Amino acid sequence: MVAETGKITEAAKKLYISQPSLTNAIHELEKEMNVVIFNRTNKGISLSAEGEIFLGYARQVLEQAAVLEDKYKGGHGEKKKFCVSTQHYSFAVNAFVDLIKRYGQDEYDFSIRETQTYEIIEDVARMRSEIGLLFLNDFNETVLRKILKSNGLEFHLLFVARPHVFISRRHPLADREVITNEELEDYPYLSFEQGEHNSFYFSEEVFSVSERKKNIRVRDRATLFNLLIGLNGYTVCSGVIDENLNGKDIIAVPLADENEMKIGYIVHQKNRISRLGTTYLKALEKYLDPKEEPGRECLHMRQE
Question: Locate the HTH lysR-type domain: which residues (predicted)?
Fold first, then answer.
C-alpha cells in the first residue's frame, strides 16, 4: 500500500493503522529480510531497486493467499489480480476479454498494458506483470535474448508469423497478393515510438535494411490506424488482424523478402504461472488458429 500511494501517512489511513505502527512494521521487515525496500529523503519515500524486486515476490505471496481464500472461503478472498504487458497485438486484447468474461463476475483488478518493448521486459522482470508478449526475429533475437537472460526471464514461442503489411483497403497497393519494400518506398511508414529505448532492436515492427524515406512514430493503436487510412501509410507486423479492434478498413498483405517473426510470451523464471495466467495463455490459442489466418504456422505454446 505504501508503494501504491507513495506516502506512509496515506497508506496508514487506508490500512486503518497508525503511521508509527506502519513505519515500525516496515523497519522490522527491512531488518528481518536484510533489504532496503524504500529510499527515504526529505521529499518523501520511493521504492528502491531492491524494493521493486521484493515487491514482486510479495505480490506473488499475496496472490497465492488470495487463491487459498478463494478456494476455502467460498470466493470471499481478495480481488482477483492479473496483469499482462504486450506489444500492440489484437489477439492479446481478445484473450484478455475472454479472461475477464470467465473470471470477472465478482470483484477483480485486471490490467493490460500495450506499451513499449523495453517496458514489457521491465514489467515482467519486476513482476508488475505476470506475462509479457513480444516478438523475436533474426535481427533482434541475439540482443533481446541477452537482455531477457540478464533479467531472469524465459521466452516461450507461441507461433511463427510471416511479416505482413497493414494498409488501408483503399490503398493503391491493396490489390496486391504480395508487396515488396520497393513498392512501399513512396508511402509513409508508421511505427510505435519506443521512448528513450527507440533502437531498432526494440522496434515492434520488422526492421528492414531498406531505408524508409517517410517515417511517422506514434504511441497508440488508434492513431496508427487512423494515419494508415488518412495518409495511405503502412506498418509491418504479424498479419493477425481483427476487424472488431482494427476496423474493416484495414487489411493485411504479405510482405516479400523479410525474416519470419517468432511471437511469444515471456515470464519470470522464478515465478509460477497462476491460474489466471494459464487461462489467459489458453485463451490466446483460440486466436492463433492457423486455419483462420493464412501465412502463419501455429506452434501452440512450445517452449523455446
Answer: 1-48
